[in-house]
Amino acid sequence: MNPLIPGIGLIFFSALCNAGVGVPLRIRRRYQWENMWLVGHAFAMLILPLAVAKFLVPDWPAAVRAVGPGTIAIIIAFGFMWGIGCVTFAIGIDAIGLSLGYAIIMGIITAVGALIPMARRWSGIPTNASIVILIGIAVCIAGVALCGKAGMIREKAVDQKGPGSGASASAAPTGSSLLKKTAAGAFAIGLAWCVLSGVTSAGNNLGFDFADRVATEAVKLGTAPVYASLARFIAVYWGGYLAVLIFCGGRMLKTGSWRNYAGAGAGRDGALSFAMGAFHFTSQMAYGAGAYYVGRLGTTVGFAVMISASIIIASLLGFVTGEWKTAVRTSVRMLYLGLMVLMVAVLILAYGNSLVSG
């Protein structure tokens, strides 16, 4: 069987789990977003990876030591970038809106997160394949922009009808106002947060790509290649959670929201935090395995496909949950166009990957 088939399948499953990460955040009752992110990411980045690695990658400490402290420091730094992106994502989305913010962030993540790993392997990629893949990434970014434009049209129509008339307010992931959209200056600041989130969130894929030597060492020690991706993520997670701990912990100390961990409803939201972490961890593992099957350009083609699939699935879930039920026809048509463009991007990227031998 062509390895691209299970590879793309796992990446789509990763996107499905990724779409589920935000659900617990939306239905919480007692926790603020920082409470849930701190606990949820502790499960996703520390507890679950180490528990699973004990069985699938038992020699991961030796694999990490084998690549040297300098390489691990770089991987952790990329992870810290990603952690900053996780926090600034919430701030940026709250500042300029879900659809516009998501489109900007995802577009930048796609460009940075897919192109840099490709640049590392540029000399070994056939010219025809590199051209096709670059076109695929450009089409992917265009699809993201169209989906974002559709959301902007929908939200504008909701705003004109008045508060409470649509789903955009409930879709905001933070549940609290971090920045106010009251002036052009505030919007510019929010836009800057989104750009920062897009650039730094790509640190997840960049750290995973840079940690390929860790996977190589893990395989040498007897780990199955498809499971070695977990060894690549471990050091990335260390840096990621350090950033989440600093920013979310600092916010809890500043606002006193740490008190939300005790009292009525705390247990329920704690369980939701675990679910969020489980979705997040499963998404990462499925992406890592999918990137392995995709091959040498797994962190370029696979990453762009994962972003495209995430937006497609999230949009379909939006229809299921009624977010687009009252949307104006123009926005729905724009969304359909964006989704079709993303599907075309997936096909172009898959074809480009097939042109790369090995």
Keyphrases for this structure?
358 residues; mainly alpha; 15 helices
TL;DR?
The chain has helices at residues 4-20, 22-26, 33-56, 60-66, 69-96, 98-120, 127-161, 168-171, 184-201, 203-210, 212-220, 229-255, 266-294, 298-320, 329-354.
Please give the domain count.
1
The percentage of residues in β strands lies in under 5%
- The low-pLDDT segments are 163-182
The residue fraction in helices comes out at over 70%
H/I helix tally = 15
Look at the helices and sheets and give the structural class. Answer: mainly alpha
Overall mean pLDDT? 81
Q: Which geometry do the CA atoms define?
A: globular
Would you kindly provide a written description of the structure presented here, covering whatever features stand out?
The chain is mostly helical and 358 residues long. It has one domain (4-354). 79% of the residues lie in helices and 0% in strands. The chain is built from 15 helices and no strands. It has helices spanning 4-20, 22-26, 33-56, 60-66, 69-96, 98-120, 127-161, 168-171, 184-201, 203-210, 212-220, 229-255, 266-294, 298-320, 329-354. α5 (69-96) packs antiparallel against α9 (184-201). The two termini are 15 Å apart.
